[in-house]
Amino acid sequence: MPVPEEKEFVMRHCFSKWYTDEFGPKEIRYNIPWSMQLYCKRHCLEAYLFCWKEDSGWSIDAEYEVKFVGKKKSFGVKGTVQFDGYESFANHMLPFAKANSHLVNDKLKVEWRIKINKMTGFDDEDSSGNKENDDIVLKVKEEKFEVDKKFLGENSTYFNNLFFKSSDESGKTEIELEDVDPQEFNKFLKVLREEEPIDDETVEEILKLADKYDSKNALKRCEEFLIDKSKKPLKMKFNAAIQYKLNKLKKKCMSNMESKEDIQEIAEEDARHFNASVWKELLQKALSLD
Question: What pTM was computed for the model?
């Protein structure tokens, strides 16, 4: 059956460094299950995209682009493939040296873009697209960002509700976001996709958007950064811990308060978001320093 309209999809997954035989989750595209794999061989890594459709008598002719996405650069290869049976696949090898140059936080992000040109042995219902898995355009002021609805929904309660539970936005191909700076939103997306690490220049912007869009993954990564790597002052870290309910960071900050001057500096900040429990903890800490 020729494809009556363009059928394209994108799958992304971040694989752990040198993890042998790691599979990404199975995802449904056009009512067909697919999954990615990164396999560690003796001298290289091999990236696979598997088609898990059962039965026989069908085939899918497609163009693909597989990308290995690094912090500042990406390496991509294009090709064609025919999927025609259970466990049929497309694959590409990547030398270890090339893989190392694209690692971000000891992980390798792999992206497959598939354009289906022909489907044989399917009826219309079998090959109809799953709208929940389509990409969507988010407009932020004059900037537009094409995002994977499923990926963003998995990383943000706000976007999950917007894409999949809001009847007002259902079926839209473009949604405008308000009260957000496009550059900050771009950094937020790159952190979610693990294309860029969090640093002291971006952590406060990422925290703000992670809270705004209810992204527990981004909040957790900001908290880990502030605990392990950040050079930000104690008062900034403590205020962030209270404002964004980062309990591990708050505990770390309390243990790092070594003098009453430290506590006084924190208390002199705009502390309207401190509740009675926080003030009690600060008082107990001050008394313990006598």
Answer: 0.57
